[in-house]
Amino acid sequence: MIQQLIQKIQKTKAPVCVGLDPMLNYIPEHILRESFQKFGETLEGAADGIWNFNREIIDHTWDLIPCVKPQIAMYEQFGLEGLKIYEKTVRYCQEKGLLVIGDAKRGDIGSTSAAYATAHLGKIKVGSNLCTAFNTDFLTVNPYLGTDGIKPFVDVCRAEDKGLFVLVKTSNPSSGEFQDRKIDGTPLYELVADKVVEWGADCMSGEYSNVGAVVGATYPEMSAILRKRMPHTYFLVPGYGAQGATAEDLKPCFNQDGLGAIVNSSRGIIAAYKQEKYAMFGPENFAEASRQAVIDMAKDINSVL
Amino acid sequence: MIQQLIQKIQKTKAPVCVGLDPMLNYIPEHILRESFQKFGETLEGAADGIWNFNREIIDHTWDLIPCVKPQIAMYEQFGLEGLKIYEKTVRYCQEKGLLVIGDAKRGDIGSTSAAYATAHLGKIKVGSNLCTAFNTDFLTVNPYLGTDGIKPFVDVCRAEDKGLFVLVKTSNPSSGEFQDRKIDGTPLYELVADKVVEWGADCMSGEYSNVGAVVGATYPEMSAILRKRMPHTYFLVPGYGAQGATAEDLKPCFNQDGLGAIVNSSRGIIAAYKQEKYAMFGPENFAEASRQAVIDMAKDINSVL
After folding, report:
1. B172 and A132 in contact by Cβ < 8 A?
2. B109 to chain A nearest CA, in Å?
3. Of A199, B5, B122, B255, which residue has the fewest beta carbons closer than 10 angstroms?
4. φ and ψ of A10, to 5 deg
5. Which of A217, A72, A38, A46 is nearest to B104 (CA)?
6. Are B2 and B205 in contact (CB under 8 A)?
């Protein structure tokens, strides 16, 4: 699976992932109004608005990018109606040839992680049929429970040729609270990194493993350390743009070959029309603003590679 | 919210939580057969089987217990059809007067955790309406991202009088891989415990905080340390029964007042009819076997308090 991602990155020349994390206040009024007229000011109405918003953004960006990353929390908050749109968005993106990283940060004890792995990456046997649930291409997972909480995800990746990104060093302000604490002189995030390498060793696909890592762009010195410590691990990099990291901050996430990292931007792209820089598009042309923001982001990143 | 749980524990004299974690192979054949006949060997058919299974177990145990804990992964693996049954199970249990602990172990950066908190504990504004999504009473959460990943959950607990259980020391075999590593002489799980106390300090309800901790019964020495370190934190305790912990192992999770812990059992109760001990009930009377298993579990725990 990681090879498919690399090929798409090389083809588009854009190590860019569009974060499909719709908040209601990102959605232009004319879209929400139409959905509320159809379904009322209900969860169904909100979900319909999100779907129309997502679809226009995908239609205006799919040819420029290798992948998208829907954050499932943004759909879960609208309950079943929201999750229907999560599923529909995953399918629609895959039909357009995009790879989909389900950003769900799941993780639990072994038997439960196995159920999450089935839910998001695998197949489940029902009677004599094999069924799929959300069926994304990659999934983000949380390592706090250790090897037996991650192993079931790795097993499904191997069986189904899927990929993972394990949280190593996250982009948020308090990520250091536990992740940076030193254990025998080594910060926890580096120990987690070593385990990610170990978990991914059996899942290599060319130069890189199907087991990747989440490494926030907001801590570039740590990205540099991790890049050296895990040369064959692909990084999913949040934190660019709205969270404050610049292209220069991204540089240490990449290997010498210009590969090794896929950079996510959510707000910065899907709500681009709200920025002064793209205000001339106006709310009606929000998706064109998103397209321009993708072009600018790819150019910005390529300028430092 | 924690006071409601305590009152129900005192009323039922059972610090017992039934883990509604249905796996297809726990469900007696006669139930699955009927569902497959109605809906085919599909996700819908499987979900219908789970619903009929859950409902019978709830009907046979609700008067004996304070709460249930559906593990959302077991529903997610059946996609939207499974999640419909998760929602239906939550509602049904609440109608029976049970408190519901959503076992979802969510956790992310601030804005995303806020969306998860809304999804599972809060309300979302859609136009001029306030809507709820899954609306459980408690939620389990993962602390790896630190304070700003937990704060939004705590805020919703305060606003809506709900509760949390934060992963501190989990029950699985490899939980020690990161959680037991020492930082300046103190294991990570104790540092997480200290943060849980800090996060919960603003959320007190009587003697206990609405912010609780997940503490596995499988490591009784560590439970004892944590019990002392966080006297006003309620423990959600997995690991009893099928995972190997005995009543004696549970003892250190409780305070002198006989409170402080709610013990979960999933397989041991919902699939009791598969154990030799309860085999005389037979698959047709699986829910009566579950009832007997709850009675036995409460007695077993009370014998050490």
Report:
1. no
2. 6
3. B255
4. -65, -40
5. A72
6. yes
**Structure confidence by residue, pLDDT tens digits, B199-210:** 999 999 999 999
Q: Are A120 and B76 an interchain contact pair (Cβ–Cβ within 8 Å)?
A: yes
Measured in angstroms, the CA of A93 and the nearest CA of chain B are apart by: 18
Instruction: Please state, in angstroms and rounded to a whole number, the distance separating the CA atoms of residues A271 and A263.
Output: 17
Averaged pLDDT for residues B90-115: 97
- Of B295, B291, B170, nearest in space to B239 by CA: B170
Those residues with Cβ within 8 angstroms of residue A272's Cβ, 6 or more apart along the chain or in another chain:
A278, A281, A286, A289, A290, A292, A293
Residue from B75, B123, B131 to probe the interface with A (highest A Cβ count within 10 Å): B131
Q: What token pair was written down for B40?
A: 């085919």
Dihedral class, residue A290 (left if φ above 0, else alpha if ψ from -120 to 50, else beta): alpha
Around B10, how many Cα atoms within 13 Å sit in the side-chain half-sphere?
10
Contacts of B189 (CB under 8 A, 6+ apart): B168, B169, B179, B180, B222, B226
- Quick check: A176 and B128 CB within 8 A? no
Interstrand relation of A261-265 and A235-237 (parallel, antiparallel or unpaired): parallel
> For residue B278, which of B270, B157, B69, B259 has the smallest C-alpha distance?
B270
Q: Given the DSSP bridges, would you call strands A186-187 and A182-183 parallel, antiparallel or unpaired?
A: antiparallel
Contact B45 A149 (CB under 8 A): no
| Chain A residues closer than 8 Å to B102 by CB | none
Cα angle B98, B104, B110 (rounded to 5 degrees) comes to: 120
Q: Give the residue among A166, A103, A172 at the shortest CA–CA distance from A136.
A: A103
What span, in angstroms and rounded, lies between the C-alpha atoms of A172 and B110?
8
Contact B20, B57 (CB under 8 A): yes
Helices (H), chain A: 2-12, 29-39, 43-61, 72-76, 79-95, 110-120, 147-160, 176-179, 188-200, 220-229, 247-250, 267-270, 286-302
Q: What's the rounded Cα separation, in Å, for the pair B115 and A71?
A: 10
A126-130: long-range contacts at Cβ-Cβ below 8 A with a sequence spacing of 24 or more? A126/B24, A126/B41, A126/B42, A126/B43, A126/B45, A126/B46, A127/B32, A127/B36, A127/B41, A127/B45, A128/B41, A129/B41, A129/B42
Token match 């992964």: residue? Answer: B73
Spatial CA neighbour of B119 closest among A72, A100, A119: A72
Q: Do A105 and B110 touch (CB under 8 A)?
A: no
What pTM did the predictor assign? Answer: 0.97
For A207, phi and psi rounded to 5 degrees? -75, -20
Q: Which residues of A are catalytic?
A: 105
B105 in active site: yes
- The conformational region for residue A175 under phi > 0 = left, psi -120 to 50 = alpha, else beta, is alpha
Q: What is the mean pLDDT of each run of 10 residues along chain A (305 residues)?
A: 98 98 97 98 98 98 98 98 98 98 97 98 97 98 97 97 98 96 96 98 96 97 97 97 91 96 97 97 98 98 95
As a whole number of angstroms, the distance between CA B20 and CA B22 comes to: 6
Among B83, B176, B181, whose Cβ lies nearest the Cβ of A183? B181
Cβ-defined contact of A84 to B83 (cutoff 8 Å): no
Residue of B nearest to A109 (CA): B172
What percent helix, strand, coil does chain B show, rounded to 5?
55, 20, 25
Distance from CA of B11 to the nearest CA of A (A): 31
Q: Are A234 and A66 in contact (CB under 8 A)?
A: no
Report the Cα A246 to chain-centroid distance in Å: 18
